[in-house]
Design brief:
Elements (H helix, E strand, L loop, with lengths): L2 H8 L11 H9 L10 E7 L2 E9 L3 E8 L12 E2 L6 E6 L7 E8 L5 E4 L15 E2 L10 H10 L7 E5 L6 E2 L5 E2 L2 H15 L3 E4 L3 E2 L12 E5 L6 H13 L3 E6 L25 H4 E2 L4 E2 L6 H17 L4 E4 L2 H5 L21 H17 L4 E4 L21 E3 L1 H11 L3 H4 L4 H4 L1 H4 L5 E5 L11 H4 L4 H17 L3 E5 L24 H19 L13 E8 L4 E7 L6 E7 L5 E8 L3 E8 L15 E4 L9 E7 L3 E7 L4
Helix pairs in contact: 4-5, 7-9, 15-16
Length: 649
């Protein structure tokens, strides 16, 4: 290209335009700018009557940055950006030729090792459909219709509200077999999912990460697009429509969010400007051996800006009601998944990741400062203290935490042959010792039905009848136990096979009565949970729970009460974990009168054997379990019963 022609091409970019103010620069350098998505990335603008796009990217160790795309034939020389002179390391430029729908990347020439690379935009709102890897200039205009939900969601997301979460992987919930097994789009899914979740009685949907990811088999956990929903299922506006539609149907939406690690795909964040910009340079801190991915440098101000801006972005622009933060334990411990000599102690010689702890506290502070009516939920698998307590008292600041201990103990217990369960009785009772130390969610999640673990149904012991009875018992016990609820899709169907992200759920099993019964049981116990304050009002307080009998290990029976704020509001829960029905089993209760049987997992409508208590039992003045009254019950095999005292004394 001649010098004259090159100069003419470069005139198509304007370098005196910026969205960054002095305040923005100050906050950016301090690590306190949490709306960077408004400043960096690609933003269509009109400047001097010229419609174009302003591009801005952080690449402090670049020698040259240019924008390449379909608007300049991917010419690396035609549209160079200019680095700011304020020390931020941000490169900017306004290109009149570019607009919404244009495809682009940043061509970066590093100061080091003559490194040259084409990168996607870390702040792009939209990516090409994988395996293509370019960013797309996009605007996020959308007319929301969920004002009623947004005004009242503080009630739906409160810790004293019923929260029952349906965990969903969008690409495999339902597929269209007649059309080459294709995914549903966001808009198609909106209608199907809203109707189903509403009918089934769940209060919230939690999506596995929809943030753009190159490898579909990562289920979204290897993220490159921290500001963009995956284009596999549609546009950003299509995803907004799905969230909007769920809200209009009274359903909250939680996003699984991954600030713990990111993949090594060349177009992503790794080695962004020829240096370890987003990740630690030392692999003992910057590389995750289990997941073959890179770990964020939480001590770097700009990285904290990036991640917290991402969190705020989803709550702001997409009206999401919560973020479930993946793999928190891997962030907290420097020696996570590492052997001796493979990790670096902190400045005090310990294994705690001080920078990550500080980041998580700041993340939660910023989320709850700006969105007091949302939820942050930690997937934290250790005994780290006060995960769901505020930072000002020494906690990490999450709203809730997954109760991994309850999940492991319960699944291990119920997978045992009932003959041996009496020797593991403490696996049922131990969880109450710590049930109120955190704001817990009880998770039966996707992690338990992959990698050879089998489906929930497959974990159950016994013949077909016993497997289904055990599964209903498991769900009933979960809904009776203190803590919010989470169930991964397919569990409610008693799906035979473990989850496969390349296939639809096994909806066809609903032609069989046992599977119809399982689905109906989940629906009914969900609605019971939502309609009975005793099961949720004091869910996270020991005032809402009282053992009747935790010691009948010989018969593998537990019984307890759940309580609401009203002293008259009591639910009795009785679980029989053996396949033997018991007659005239006496349970002490605090009050006389009629105790109505609200739900029985062994009822014939659920394909149970029909053992029950004819709708309820009158309490007798016969002392039992330290109480003046008691019920003489028929306990169904592998069954759970819910009773409620009718009327007042």
């Amino acid at each position: 290209m001649s010098g004259i022609k090159k100069e003419k091409r470069e005139q198509h970019i304007m370098h005196d335009i910026s969205l960054l103010t002095d305040d923005d620069v100050y906050l950016f350098k301090q690590g306190n700018h949490f709306k960077l998505y408004e400043k960096l990335g690609s933003h269509p603008l009109t400047v001097e009557d010229k419609r174009g796009t302003l591009f801005a990217v952080w690449a402090p160790n670049a020698r040259r940055v240019s924008v390449i795309g379909d608007f300049n034939d991917w010419d690396k020389k035609s549209h160079p950006l200019k680095v700011r002179e304020d020390g931020t390391g941000i490169w900017e430029g306004f290109i009149p030729d570019a607009g919404p729908g244009n495809i682009y990347k940043y061509h970066i020439v590093s100061r080091y090792n003559n490194y040259k690379v084409d990168k996607g935009d870390p702040f792009t709102f939209y990516w090409q459909v994988p395996p293509r890897t370019a960013s797309i200039v996009w605007e996020l205009d959308y007319e929301w219709k969920d004002s009623e939900w947004m005004q009242k969601r503080y009630v739906k997301n409160a810790l004293n509200a019923p929260i029952s979460i349906y965990e969903v992987h969008p690409g495999s919930w339902r597929r269209v077999p007649e059309e080459n097994n294709r995914y549903l789009t966001y808009r198609e899914m909106a209608h199907y999912l809203a109707h189903y979740v509403k009918e089934m009685g769940f209060t919230h949907v939690e999506f596995l990460p929809v943030t753009e990811h190159p490898f579909y088999g990562s289920w979204g956990y290897q993220t490159v697009g921290y500001f963009s929903p995956t284009s596999r299922y549609g546009t950003p506006q299509d995803f907004m429509f799905m969230v909007d539609y769920l809200h209009q149907n009274g359903i909250g939406v939680i996003l699984d969010w991954v600030p713990s690690h990111f993949p090594g795909d060349e177009h992503g964040l790794v080695y962004f400007d020829g240096t370890h910009l987003y990740e630690h340079s030392d692999p003992r801190k910057g590389f995750h051996p289990d997941w073959n991915s890179y770990i964020f440098n939480y001590g770097r101000h700009e990285v904290r800006n990036f991640l917290i801006s991402s969190a705020v972005f989803w709550l702001d622009r997409y009206h999401l009601d919560g973020l479930r933060v993946d793999a928190v334990a891997s962030m907290l411990y420097l020696d996570y998944a590492r052997r001796d000599g493979e990790w670096i102690p902190n400045e005090y010689g310990g294994k705690e990741n001080i920078e990550a702890i500080s980041f998580l506290k700041r993340f939660n502070e910023m989320v709850y400062t700006n969105f007091s009516d949302v939820l942050t939920v930690a997937e934290e698998s250790t005994a780290w203290p006060m995960v769901s307590r505020p930072p000002y008292v020494g906690g990490l600041g999450f709203g809730m935490k997954w109760n991994m201990g309850w999940m492991h103990d319960t699944l291990d217990y119920i997978s045992q042959d009932p003959v041996f369960r009496k020797y593991r009785h403490n696996q049922l009772t131990f969880s109450i010792w710590y049930a109120f130390s955190e704001n817990f969610v009880l998770p039966l999640s996707h992690d338990e039905v992959v990698h050879g673990k089998g489906s929930l149904y497959g974990k159950m012991s016994g013949d077909e009848w016993q497997k289904h009875a055990n599964l209903r018992l498991l769900f009933g016990y979960m809904y009776g136990h203190p803590g919010k609820k989470l169930l991964f899709m397919g569990g409610e169907l008693a799906q035979w096979k473990e989850w496969n992200h390349e296939e639809s759920l096994e909806w066809h099993v609903l032609q069989y009565p046992f599977h119809q019964g399982a689905q109906r049981w989940v629906r009914d116990v969900n609605h019971l949970y939502k309609n009975e304050p005793a099961l949720y009002e004091l869910d996270l307080s020991n005032e809402g729970f009282e053992w009747i009998d935790s010691s009948d290990w010989e018969k593998s029976i537990i019984s307890f009460m759940r309580k609401g704020k009203s002293t008259e509001d009591i639910i009795l829960v009785v679980c029989n974990f053996t396949p033997v029905p018991l007659y005239n089993y006496r349970i002490g209760v605090p009050k006389g009168g009629f105790w109505r049987e609200l739900l029985n997992s062994d009822a014939t409508i659920y394909c149970g054997s029909g053992h029950g208590n004819a709708g309820g039992v009158e309490a007798s003045p016969v002392p039992a379990h330290g109480r003046y009254y008691s019920l003489s019950l028929i306990l169904p095999p592998l069954g759970v019963l819910f009773f409620k005292k009718e009327g007042r004394n």
